[in-house]
Amino acid sequence: MNIFKKLIFSAPILIAGTAAAQHSLTVNISNLKAGKGKVEIGIYNKAEGFLKPDKVYIGEKVKVGGASTLSYTFRDLPAGDYAVAVYQDENSNGKADTNMIGIPKEGFGFSNNVKPKLSPPTFTQTKFTLIQNKSINITLLNY
């Protein structure tokens, strides 16, 4: 009987503690090519594996409508450091197309609107801390 009482009385505390630590992140993306393909949004929660597709913490593909902007909200994220990478897969082939020297042919962007020079940005350059519900803006770069 004591175990049952402990479970009953501790369950609300565990549930309340878990619910309080969850936040939403709204990613507002601009400079899209309207009506073309999908936007792939990747959220990373650590530097190791940043920008590697198989290391995405949470990812989503969103169809691009007739506007040059879109917003997507991720829910139930625990507090912590995150970085967001976005690209517009204009031809819906499931990959970020590049030219023969590796420059992206499709729009892309990062949290903090980091503009890479000669190499991809680092997790540290693009990270932000999520401690409450947050909205970030990312303007896609098109070369």
The overall number of domains is 1
Portion of residues in helices? 10-25%
Q: How many distinct beta strands?
A: 8
Which consecutive residue ranges, at least 5 long each, have pLDDT under 50?
A: 4-18
Number of helices: 2
Radius of gyration: 19 Å
Report the order of strands and helices: HEEEEEEHEE
Based on helices, strands and strand pairing, what is the structural class? alpha+beta
CATH architecture designation: Sandwich
The gross shape turns out to be: globular
Keywords: Signal
InterPro entries: DUF2141 (IPR018673)
Protein name: DUF2141 domain-containing protein
Pfam families: DUF2141
Characterise the protein shown here.
The protein is α+β, with helices and mostly antiparallel strands and 143 residues long. It has one domain: Immunoglobulin-like (Sandwich), CATH 2.60.40. Helices cover 16% and strands 38% of the residues. It has two helices and eight strands; from the N terminus they run H-E-E-E-E-E-E-H-E-E. Strands 2, 3, 5, 6 and 7 form a five-stranded antiparallel β-sheet that branches. It has a three-stranded mixed β-sheet with strand order 4-1-8. It is globular, with a radius of gyration of 19 Å. It starts with a helix and ends with a strand. This is DUF2141 domain-containing protein. InterPro entries: DUF2141 (IPR018673).
